[in-house]
Amino acid sequence: MKRLIYLDNAATTRTAPEVAEAMLPYFTEYYGNASSIYSLGRESKEAMTKARASIAGLLGAKENEIYFTAGGSEADNWALKATAEAYASKGRHIITTKIEHHAILHTCQYLEKQGFEVTYLDVDEFGVVKLSELEKAIRPDTILISVMFANNEIGTLQPIKEIGEIAHKNGILFHTDAVQAFGQVPIQVDEMHIDMLSSSGHKINGPKGIGFLYIRKGIKIQSFIHGGAQERKRRAGTENIPGIVGYGKAAELAAEQMEEKAKRETELRDYLISRILKEVPYARLNGHPKKRLPNNVNFSFQFVEGESMLIMLDMEGICASSGSACTSGSLDPSHVLLAIGLPHEIAHGSLRLTLSGETTKEDIDDTVDAIKKIVEKLRSMSPLYEDFVRRNQ
Questions:
Q1: Is the distance from CB of 8 to CB of 354 less than 8 angstroms?
Q2: pTM surpassing 0.90?
């Protein structure tokens, strides 16, 4: 069996051994319901309180502003739907961008069917929101601005602090989908004027099936899931204590390692970018060259299909993902790549590689060598490439 090179950490990460170890006792030993008054239940409640404090500390938030969910998609849905419901009497206009995760875009489409209006902002060629366009889009009836912290496909970081300032200057709530950014880059909710923030545990070496929504104290939005009085009566359902404990541990590790990990990943990321751009003709880096997640690289290769690259990389033991949505059953290229101005034929030939703290220089070198061979082979079978070469000789 070939050595596995895992470069799809934006999709999910390996659960850290320390996280798995922290979770285990809460499956078999401290299994009490956190809502119970007996000591076994109190053990669970104390563990949940500790995890909440670890997560809040990473954001500069208060513990009682962190509400656990089943993941980032639930948190995104909650933020948008509950805000729309709570503030409908003030206005029915929401602003977001064309490059958001589908958890935001599909929720906005749902809200449009409920009578809300949504403005989808354009971005520049690097995937950055234009602040002047944001300010122009604001109306007297605007109640919410939702802009992702970092894009899940191209890794571009948004000017979150400036967006938050604009929102608050105009008396508008600001939500950010920080699923890719939390634990990867510094986030301070007060300094950045963030009112709500979504996150997911499995993106930072935590477990799947757990996330949270940060809700600034004083924001009057209601429960998304009704039933019991859990999460201070805002999110019903017996708490996923093992998942919460795991997320808390992952947040602790992220706080300890973030600076060093980001430095190391950035060096490897830039080395990967440099090799590809130098050694693979007709390759394009997507996203901002510097203002991007430390671990994210996204390329488009002309005259190549992204899905074919993925299959051939997998045969080499390399896990990656494509900028094209064709692998999920759609023939349309990524909405993010189209939004930054790529034509369909180039967007279809895209590849996302996302590193982890375990990625080595050897992994990068082996991956680049594999990509060079694969791209050359695929282009050799492309009549479009053959015609292009003939015309440019």
A1: yes
A2: yes
